[in-house]
Amino acid sequence: MDIFWIYVSLAILASALLLFLIIFIGVVELGTDADGKPRSSQGALTAFNLALFTGICALIGYDACQAISVYLSPSDWRDYLLQFFSDLFQSLWGIMYLFFSFKRSYNQIRIMLKEHFDWIRVAWLVSPVPLLIPAFLAVCKLIDRKMFDRTGKSEFFWYQCSQILCIVILASFDALFAACFTKYLTRTLVDKSCEYDRKFLIISRYGTAANALCLTMIPLWVASIVLYFIDIAKNAAYLFHYNMFAVTIAVLMNAVYFILFAMKIALYYQRKQESEQEAERITKIHRKSSGTIFENPTKTKNAV
């Protein structure tokens, strides 16, 4: 299949995912409650929903930019503009991924890495700044095309350096998430007497799957960078290998958000099950209390 159609297919899949998210929030989460009353619309504006929505929109934009850049003939100004939007969407993808993952695993990280938690939280808060550097470099290129030439290095050199920084950040957080998820899953499997939170278990399972895909992207990013720095970029085969790495990364980027959406669905139905169990428990208590009240007058009368 032509690379263009691969990116188009990925954009369509991401658009379908966005549609499913909107339907799920509108129909399921904002439907009627047990009493038939409509739920408040504020339930749709949670940080998790906004992060997931923004991340999927960024994913669609990234796939679309890649498809357009492959389809259209080369043009300096248009290529620079597409590069900016592609880098911006990829940065937003990473920022929303880190936001969603960190907030979902917040309690796990705080409990398991409590001695270093404050530093981890600070690093997470400032992570969007370096992740936006590739988009910033693209803006610089739009403003002054010869800006990078004056540094003695090509713009591609600086772009790859910024990508290395982004890789280090994403790899560090992915390793952190993976360590916490694996540790939690191992504890629940080994220590049968240990009580565990079902919510944490779901987050750990889906989080581990998402982390595995992100960690798989890292060697691909590194490989594409290495190809450039060892001068294979001058070889005709470089473009083919680079495109293969880029397409594979795009597929994995899409898969990550499908897993995050699946995590959201699993957590929703887990909360729903817990609410139903709690409501059933309260109902039993009320019935037991009512039965005791009706029994007391009879017992008192017999005693007299």
Features:
304 residues, mainly alpha, elongated
Briefly characterize the structure.
The chain is mostly helical. The protein has helices spanning 3-29, 47-71, 76-104, 106-112, 117-126, 128-131, 133-143, 155-190, 198-229, 237-303. Helix 2 (47-71) packs antiparallel against helix 10.
Any overview of this molecule?
This protein is about 80% helix and about 0% strand. The chain starts with a helix and ends with a helix. The protein is built from ten helices and no strands. The longest helix has about 70 residues. The radius of gyration is 26 Å and the shape is elongated. With about 300 residues, the protein is mostly helical. The C terminus is likely disordered.
Major β-sheet annotation: none
Q: Compute the separation of the termini in Å.
A: 91 Å
Order of helices and strands: HHHHHHHHHH
**Beta-strand content estimate:** under 5%
Task: Chart the SSEs and their pairings.
Layout: H1 3-29, H2 47-71, H3 76-104, H4 106-112, H5 117-126, H6 128-131, H7 133-143, H8 155-190, H9 198-229, H10 237-303
